[in-house]
Amino acid sequence: MISARMKKRGMVWVVHALLGLWLCISLLPPVMLVAASLNRTALFRSPLDLLTFRDFTLENFSQAFTRGDFWFFFTNSVIISASAVVITLVVCVPLAYGLTKISGRAREAVSFGVLAMRFIPYVVLALPLFLIFVNLGLSGSRLGLLLAHLSIHIPFATWMLVGFFDTVPHELEEAGIVDGCSPWHLFWNVSVPVVRSGIVALAILVFIISWNEYLFALFLAGNDAQPLTVGITRFLGGAEAGAEYGIIAAYAVLVIAPVIVFALTANRFIVSGMTAGAVKG
Amino acid sequence: MQCCAGTVGEWMAGVSIQNVEKSFGGTRVIHGIDIEIADGAFVVLVGPSGCGKSTLLRIIAGLEDVTSGAILIGDTEVNDMAPKDRDIAMVFQNYGLYPHMTVAQNMGFALKLAKVDKAEIARRVDHAAGILNLSALLERYPRQLSGGQRQRVAMGRAIVRNPQVFLFDEPLSNLDAKLRVQMRAEIKQLHQRLKVTTVYVTHDQIEAMTMADVIVVMHDGVVKQAGSPLDLYDRPANLFVAGFIGSPAMNLMDARVSSGKLVFADGQTLPMPDGVTLADGDVVRVGIRPEDLIVAQAGLSTRVRIVEPTGAEIHVGTQLGDTPMTVVLRERHDLHPDQSLTLSPLPGRIHLFDPTTEARLN
User: Fold this and answer.
1) Which residues lie below 8 Å from residue A108, measured CB to CB, with a gap of 6+?
2) Is A178 an 8 Å CB contact of chain B?
3) CA A2 to CA A15: how far, in whole Å?
């Protein structure tokens, strides 16, 4: 009995040690990024050396702000990512709910169609979208880039949300019907609150995907709609590129900070086990 | 008629089910059922899985349409009425509580949808919570409640609406045995207090026997018998009801009529019950309840297979020839497997059925 318990404890230690190692490996790049952004020189220095902060400076951040047109790119990123979240949810939540209410072949066909959109590597879409947007006069506009993002988000989000709505117990809606819910009430007051956590998680995902998107931005953003991911490349390349590593690092920190803040804020709305107690499990 | 303010049960009404048929696609699951449920009665629909009892309840609730026939609540035909307009309240097997709402919000939701005044909602929720001992739990969420408490909230949600009819769809089947007995008593007391017409679906015949004013036994989409629990127990109208009602189940054995006696397969005989005339050579199915057999000097000689003392009584599994037969004895006997035991039915407690039509003969 004791040996079994000790064995179990030993296993727990091993698992914790492995998780700790994994955490260190995962955290190393972002930690290095922050360290590099706070040192005057970053090139050719070992990680441990950087973490001594022997030439600590905030100069890189001020450079990133002033030389990098930071606020221009930031505004584009915020507008595109936030609009992508709002539009994706407004379109996909009712769409997915509707899909769970139709049955049989119609549902399978629509679901497969939506999923099939996910089969296409989206780099393939960049050129045709570029040509279409040029014809429509959307090339180089935020709206064009937003539409390109939505072409990725909508199939993905619909597919996820159908899965969420499928978990809403049938009895819950029937209880709603007996209580006097209209179809709108069933959707808005019964089903949506139950899958709220999933919707929030999805919103975070959509925001992160849009915020980090680079390829469409490179092809379709022109000069006026470039987001932060494209903006950062201004410091890459060129003769003096080596000297700019600190600024690139500072810029990168500024790029990832908002998405972390957003994710942490939204995370508070994710309540695990939302359906617990609704019906007998 | 929408539910409205006033004491609970003010708007009682009976339910009339008239020649109702229901098909799903080409499969007919309910074959022309007629049931009259009196004002304030507690009616239990009971039967094995797939007999159509839950479908019938859902038809009364308006969650399913009828294929033909009519449903009347009070004097109003409700076939084409939405569930919310039928003035019914339903308690679901799996509770069906809204997980994002507190107990109070769950209970008041229907009233809120009906745009009842907030103070009135609070008053009625408080009143129902008082009846169900939920007053201390009103601000909790369903996930913070035990199974029994959740079931009570589901009942509270029904009570606050002051419906004309309560519908219960196997409400206790998810509870453990002890809680089930307790909730059974609570539901019965609730009905005695509110006197609202209640239709209750269960597959558990003990639940049916203990709670009902009237039991409707269903099988394969038809009503096999409807009546008071003791009527069904004492005079089952057919083999199905005989086998379904009563626990342990009634012993059913084939016998042949010969010279005014019932002759079993192994040659043993019992006298023919009074009031039945059968010709020699007729084959009948003889039903004797386990509790209607006593240990006697003369009667049917059986062999003991298994002895199960429950404390208050002893369940003895015996063998009459090749036919298994169960006996419930209230007196204590020192019994062992393989010993012989002579059993005699109590007078007037033999049920005879036609093996072909399955109908009662005596």
Assistant:
1) none
2) yes
3) 20
Domain boundaries, chain A: 27-57, 67-267
Q: Which residues of A touch B165 (CB under 8 A)?
A: none
Name the minimum distance, in Å, from the CA of A279 to any CA of chain B: 5
| Ordered domains of chain B (ranges, CATH) | 15-243 (3.40.50.300), 251-353 (2.40.50.140)
Q: Name the strands in the sheet holding B283-288, side by side, starting at the edge strand that comes first in the sequence.
A: B269-271, B261-264, B251-258, B283-288, B350-353
- Please name the residue of chain B whose CA is at the shortest distance from the CA of residue A184: B113
Report long-range pairs for A150-154 (Cβ below 8 Å, ≥24 apart): A150/A84, A150/A87, A150/A88, A150/A91, A151/A117, A151/A122, A151/A125, A152/A122, A152/A209, A152/A213, A153/A84, A153/A88, A153/A92, A153/A206, A153/A209, A153/A210, A154/A88, A154/A91, A154/A92, A154/A114, A154/A117
Chain B environment of A274 (Cβ under 8 Å): 99-100
Tens digits of residue pLDDT in B259-288: 889 999 989 999 998 888 888 989 999 999
Which residues of A fall within a CB distance of 8 Å from B84?
177-181
Q: What is the pLDDT of residues B226-257, one digit of tens each?
A: 999 999 999 999 999 999 999 899 999 999 99
Cα torsion A186, A189, A190, A195 to 10°: value is 120
ipTM of the assembly? 0.82
- From the number of C-beta atoms within 10 Å of its C-beta (0-12, 13-18, 19+), residue B282 rates as middle
Convert the pLDDT of each residue in A210-269 to its tens digit: 999 998 998 888 888 899 998 888 776 654 545 578 888 888 899 988 888 888 887 777
A107 reaches B (C-beta below 8 A) = no
d(CA B241, CA A207): 63
Is residue B64 left, alpha or beta, with left meaning phi > 0 and alpha meaning psi from -120 to 50?
beta
Burial of A127 (C-beta count, 10 Å sphere; 0-12/13-18/19+):
exposed
* pLDDT value at A204 more than 80: yes
pLDDT in tens, B179-213: 888 889 989 998 998 899 999 999 998 999 999 99
What one-character-per-residue DSSP string does B218-241 give? EETTEEEEEE-HHHHHHS-SBHHH
Task: Judge whether B252 and B286 are in contact, CB under 8 Å.
Answer: yes
Domain A67-267 sits in CATH at 1.10.3720.10
Rounded to a whole number of angstroms, the distance from the CA of A170 to the nearest CA of chain B is 8
Two tokens, residue A250: 């500072």
- Please, are residues A161 and A195 in contact by the beta-carbon 8 Å criterion? yes
Residue B336 in contact with partner chain A when CB distance is under 8 A: no
